[in-house]
Structures are given as structure tokens and as C-alpha cells.
UniProtKB/TrEMBL annotation:
The chain crosses the membrane at residues 20-38. Keywords: FAD, Flavoprotein, Membrane, Transmembrane, Transmembrane helix. NCBIfam families: aminoacetone oxidase family FAD-binding enzyme (TIGR00275). Residues 19-405 form the RsdA/BaiN/AoA(So)-like Rossmann fold-like domain. The keyword ATP-binding does not apply. Its cofactor is FAD. Residues 203-352 form the RsdA/BaiN/AoA(So)-like insert domain. This is NAD(P)/FAD-dependent oxidoreductase.
């Protein structure tokens, strides 16, 4: 008698019994089920939502930034930065690109190794569903999970809105707390705790920063202004675009640094990235002594921002009138513009969840619980969070593949 049969019979007749049940029909969950199905395992994916792959569908402006060719463990945040190494090494961006290519999906590199579909993110979801069908994986939406029991002889029994289900291996791929409007919840963390796992504190990642009081008043009427910057916090820096909003700051550079920033941390922005600000000012003084600072800055920064800098942080006058010490002070403001953020936009707009199921309780090779045989955690629910730019999808593919190879 197989284990799933044992589980089904132990809990009573009339069960759906499976080798593997995956809770969560997102990127990680579908990849896990496909990998398990390819091994001949009878796999079922269930999700409480009305459709699969909601985050896939919305990502990359609807074109899905499905991986990053520059993926290494260095682009991930975790209490254990070594945890992600094994899975990432065994399922690489090249592996997923080969899968995309095999389905004839055209793609392009936008910047910094970020790969997007030429067409629509729907192509990635369709590819995953086609792959699932090819290995006889079943997918059920509108299926919510209530009680889960682990049987003494092994396996699990689930009470769901689609009836009672039984399985040998149970995979938690429920995602994190980001974007609750798409159905995100803390269900995966509740399950982890229920089975004795530690869950590290969670917070919003890859999220816009908010300003308040005088800090917001100084720039909120500049909403819509965008520019290339380098954002610096706690020894980490990201160069990319920044967008000023009516509530604070957004754009790729800000989203990236937000995963490192905590309330109270010093945040500084280099408004002339790639330039030695002091040397640049000295050249301007030598070559254009009669030009005012605000005029010179307006030629290199958005005009409205340049004028505001000169109204609040700098005194604008002809370049020839500045002393060397004053030029140095101006350079400091331009290369390390201080920003006092009050918080973030929170889960509503966060792209990912920082923190999650403690990796100390999980095998880095298989994603299986160290204390509950047959229980697996993959994707965003785990304390592994990537940078912006396709890294979180690559973690989903890699962790899902790792679990699916043994579940």
C-alpha cells in the first residue's frame, strides 16, 4: 500500500489522494508541481484565488520580468545568505530561458540582465499550465484550505472547500504578504508555525518610501519629476531611476534600497551618479563663471528639482563667486543629498515580503522541513528575498524545482 493510499484510508473513504499537493498556484508552486509530475508523481496544485499566477500576470508591466541573467546569491537578502546557493546553482536562468525558448516565447533584455516577454506575461502562465498538463498535474482554483493534519504513519490530510484531500508530500508555496488585493495573506506563516517552524519578522520590500512633515512639503509639488540617481544606505548602493511622488519617493533605485532601509536609517542620494561632483563644479566655475548655479544644475538635473535645491539646500549665485570651501559643500549636497524617510507605502504596493519562514528549519538542497518529513516550503514564504529585476522569479523557479525534484 502506498503512503498516499495509507493516508487516504486512515482518514476515511472518499478522499482525493495524491503523491504531492502544492498549496499556491504561483510561480514557485507551479514549477514544483511540474518538476514532481515529470518524475511520475501524481501532483495537485490548489489555490484559493480565481486564477493562477496572478503575480506573474501583473509583473513587468504585464510583460513579466521572468528572470535575470546575472543571478547570483549576492542579490538575495536572508538571515542566512548561504541558504539560496544550492537551489540557485541547480536551476539557473539558462535553464528557465531554455524552457521559455522551447515554447517559442519571444523575449528581450531590457537592462541589467532583466529579461521580459516581447508579448505578454500571459505567455509565461500559459507555458506553465501547458507544462503541467503535459505531466498530468492537476490545478484547482477557488480551493481554500482549512484544517491540515499530519498522520502518524506519514502523509497529510487537508480539509478544503473542494473536499478532503490526502497526500504524501505537502508543499507550501503560498507567497508572502505583498499586494493583499491579489489575495496575499499570512496563511503560509500560520502553517509553518503550526508545524513548529520559526517565522522571522516580515516587512514590506521593494516598496516606495514615504516622507512626512517638512521633508514632504519641500518636494511634494515636484511629483512626477524623475531622474537617474544612486541611492545609498548602510553601505549598499543602487543606481537607477528615481521618481518623486506626492507621498515621497519611488522608482527602481528607491525600491531597491527600500529592502535595506529601516526607520531611522540614514539615506543619501547621489544626484550626479557617475560624476565627481566637486570636480564637475570646479569645471563649471572655470568654464562658466558668470552662470548661476541654478542654471548650471538645470542643464544636468530636472529644472524644477534644480530650482528647489537652490531654494532650500543651496544658495544660487554666479559660479565665480563661490569659494573652494563653498563648492565643496555644494558637492556634498549633490553627491549625498540627505533624505529623511518616515516609512514605506507598505504591503499595498510592496513587490515582495522580507523575512518569513526561518531557513534554519529547512534543507537548502530539498526545501523540506528538517523536523516534519514530507513538508516543504518554497518561494516567497521562505526568508529569501531578491532584488528588483527578475531575481525573485528566479528564486521561485529554483526553489520550486529543488522541492519538486524530491517531493
Amino acid at each position: 500500500m502506498s503512503r498516499p493510499e495509507t493516508a487516504a484510508r486512515a482518514a476515511g473513504a472518499g478522499h482525493d489522494d495524491w503523491d504531492v499537493i502544492v498549496i499556491g498556484a504561483g510561480a514557485a508552486g507551479l514549477m514544483c508541481a511540474i518538476t514532481a509530475g515529470a518524475r511520475g508523481r501524481r501532483a495537485l496544485v490548489i489555490d484559493h484565488a480565481n486564477k493562477v499566477g496572478k503575480k506573474i500576470l501583473m509583473s513587468g508591466g504585464g510583460r513579466c520580468n521572468f528572470t535575470n541573467t546575472g543571478t547570483t546569491p549576492a542579490q538575495y537578502l536572508s538571515a542566512n545568505p548561504h541558504f539560496c546557493k544550492s537551489a540557485l546553482a541547480r536551476y539557473t536562468p539558462a535553464d528557465f530561458i531554455a524552457l521559455v525558448d522551447s515554447h517559442g516565447i519571444a523575449w528581450h533584455e531590457k537592462e541589467l540582465g532583466q529579461l521580459f516577454c516581447d508579448g505578454s506575461s500571459k505567455q509565461i502562465v500559459r507555458m506553465l499550465l501547458d507544462e503541467a498538463e503535459a505531466v498530468e498535474v492537476q490545478v484547482r482554483t477557488h480551493c481554500s484550505v482549512g484544517d491540515i493534519r499530519r498522520l502518524e504513519q506519514g502523509g497529510f490530510v487537508l480539509a478544503t472547500t473542494s473536499g478532503r484531500l490526502a497526500c504524501e508530500s505537502l508543499v507550501i508555496a503560498t507567497g508572502g504578504l505583498s499586494i493583499p488585493s491579489m489575495g496575499a495573506s499570512g496563511f503560509g506563516y500560520e502553517l509553518a508555525r503550526r508545524f513548529g517552524h520559526e517565522v522571522l519578522p516580515t516587512r514590506a520590500g521593494l516598496v516606495p518610501l514615504t516622507l512626512s512633515g517638512k521633508h514632504l512639503e519641500r518636494i511634494n509639488d515636484l511629483s512626477g519629476v524623475a531622474l537617474d540617481i544612486s541611492a545609498h544606505c548602510k553601505g549598499v548602493a543602487f543606481r537607477n531611476r528615481m521618481l518623486i511622488t506626492h507621498r515621497g519617493l519611488s522608482g527602481p533605485a528607491i525600491l531597491q534600497i527600500s529592502s535595506y532601509w529601516r526607520p531611522g536609517d540614514e539615506l543619501r542620494l547621489d544626484l550626479l551618479p557617475g560624476e565627481d561632483a566637486l570636480a564637475w563644479l570646479q569645471r563649471q566655475q572655470h568654464e562658466r563663471g558668470a552662470a548661476e548655479l541654478k542654471t548650471v544644475l538645470s542643464e544636468h538635473l530636472p529644472r524644477r528639482l534644480a530650482q528647489r535645491l537652490c531654494e532650500v539646500w543651496l544658495e544660487s549665485r554666479p559660479m565665480r563667486q563661490y569659494t573652494p570651501a563653498q563648492l565643496h559643500d555644494i558637492a556634498t549636497v549633490l553627491s549625498a543629498w540627505p533624505v529623511v524617510a518616515s516609512g514605506t507605502e507598505g504591503w499595498r504596493t510592496a513587490e515582495v515580503t522580507l523575512g518569513g519562514v526561518d531557513t534554519r528549519g529547512i534543507s537548502s538542497k530539498t526545501m523540506m522541513s528538517n523536523t516534519v518529513p514530507g513538508l516543504f516550503f518554497i518561494g516567497e514564504v521562505v526568508d529569501v528575498t531578491g532584488w528588483l529585476g527578475g531575481y525573485n522569479f528566479q528564486w521561485a523557479w529554483a526553489s520550486g524545482h529543488a522541492a519538486g525534484s524530491v517531493a
